[in-house]
Amino acid sequence: MSIDFNTVRTEAVTKLYGLTRALAGVDAEFQAGKVTVIEGPNGSGKSTLLHILAQEARPSSGHVLYNGRKIRRGRLRSRIGVLAHQSMLYPDLTGDENLRLFSALYQVPEAPARIDDLKQRFHIGRFAERPARTWSRGQLQRVALARTLLGSPRLLLLDEPSTGLDNRSVELLVKAIKDERDRGSIVVVVTHDLGFSSEIADTVVRLKQGRVDTSTGEQGVST
Amino acid sequence: MNTLRMAWLIAEKDLRVEWRTKEIILTTALFGILVVILSSLSFYLNPTMSRRVAPGVLWVAIAFAGVLSLGRSWGRERDNDAMRGLLLSPVPRPSIYLGKWLSGFILLTAIEAILIPLVAIFFHLDLTPLAWPLAAIVGLGTTGFVAAGTLFSALSARGGARDLLLSVVVFPLIAPALLSAVVATRELLAGAPLSETFEWLRILGAFDIIFLAGGYTLFGPIISD
User: Fold this and answer.
1) Is A77–B86 a contact, with Cβ atoms under 8 angstroms apart?
2) CB contact under 8 A, A84 and B225
3) Which is the most buried residue in B36, B148, B168, B184, by most CB within 10 A?
4) CA dist list (Å): B167 to B60, B63, B70, B150, B207
């Protein structure tokens, strides 16, 4: 069953790794049709928050609510797309094989047409016929972005997506993020790149020592 | 049905990668061949002794090759953090376990298809009349070995200790199954009728069911945060 939602809200979310407190009571709301950028120094809990939003990690306390409801972990996987610094692609498979594999795992309807569309959108050319280990960083990230969007995610989470990319790849990334926002997705981006952030952000949340330090922009986040 | 289909997709991906790179087959088979050759040079005395020594040599070679093979198979999941992509997808966790078990089983069986004739050659054994009972013992032993190894390889792939953890945890765990396989093979080579090895086959079968059911059930909780 496909579950839809327009908001994701964290309520007093904390996360402990042993004695280390990665998040210390984060209250935040992420809305459909908005790009929220999460900034903060290293160790401020940005990636941990993203892991929790992606349902990869459980909060030690607090809740994540989707349209105001708690949803059992795992049920939203088909509705969440994650793009990280690592491509999560199999290096010994070609681009086409990687995309076909993930479209099958996500049970994408009319997968060949969806793959062709994404390949065209992200200028994925002949290089995709070679194994992923032979690609440049930009090529890898473009195919990774296509993989992330295969299942048309409702919640799109991007962790330092622009790191190591050339200008052309960053332009494609910015356009993809804006397209997803306009499509009505909830987009959350973790980045250190202030220039990139200013191009895409509707709301900026700054984390410091696991807490929301400041937030700017429309409604998005409560401190 | 969906669980099995997803499992096949994952196994097929592993086999496709191995077909392309030949990395696991080449490295582990070479290692296994070395174990067999060195053991035959050290332990071969006469045809009677060879029937007692060969089962141990065969299973030592299979166990070491198996650990290497499973370690590398899960190592591929670490490259580019591909495992994370798999865990983020809506694939049921048991499908991932079953898929990795299936590809591990097929690869180890391929390695055994090289090692068994080699043991026969170097220890001067005629295994042709014993082919089917031997296949049953090796098949059951491999099933349990890969079932336990897959579960703990996944743990090692997510954790920091990796291959060390795999060897330290897997060998004690599978020791009873490995012992049963060695004794069953020894009895078979010593000329015992199949009915006498049947008890060992039952023990192996029980281990297979426990390891497979345990892996199927525990894989999700173990692999998740």
Assistant:
1) no
2) no
3) B184
4) 13, 10, 11, 12, 19
Block residue for tokens 């999941």: B77
What is the secondary structure of A164-199 as a DSSP string? Answer: T--HHHHHHHHHHHHHHHHTT-EEEEE-S-HHHHHH
Residue with tokens 């799109």: A156
CA angle B135, B137, B138 (to 5 degrees): 65
SS3 content of chain B, % helix, strand, coil (to 5): 90, 0, 10
DSSP B152-192: HHHHHHHSSSTHHHHHHHHHHHHHHHHHHHHHHHHHHHTT-
Structural domain contains residue A2:
no
What is the arithmetic mean of pLDDT over B177-205?
A: 90
Instruction: Identify the contact set of chain A against chain B, taking CB-CB distances under 8 A.
Output: 51, 54, 56-58, 73-74, 77-78, 80, 82, 84, 86-93, 97, 101-102, 104-107, 131-132, 140, 147, 151
Assigned domain for A1 exists:
no
- Closest residue in B to A141 (Cα–Cα): B80
- State whether residue B135 is helix, strand or coil: helix
pTM of the model: 0.91
**Residue of A121, A114, A115 lying closest to A96 (CA atoms):** A115
Pairing state between β A186-190 and A155-159: parallel
Closest CB to A92: pick one of B17, B87, B91.
B17
Query: Residue A121's domain is classified under what CATH number?
Result: 3.40.50.300
- Note the pLDDT tens digit of each residue in A29-44: 999 999 999 999 998 9
When CB atoms are compared, the residue of B6, B17, B224 closest to A90 is: B17
Asked whether residue A203 is assigned to any structural domain, the reply reads yes
Distance to chain B for A172, nearest Cα, Å: 22
CA distance A138 to A79: 25
What range defines the domain where residue A47 resides?
7-217
ipTM of the complex: 0.90
- Residues A99, A120: Cα–Cα separation, whole Å: 13
Q: Does residue A80 sit within a domain?
A: yes
Domain count within chain A: 1
**Residue A172, phi then psi, degrees to nearest 5:** -60, -40
Tens-digit pLDDT profile for residues A173-182:
999 999 999 9
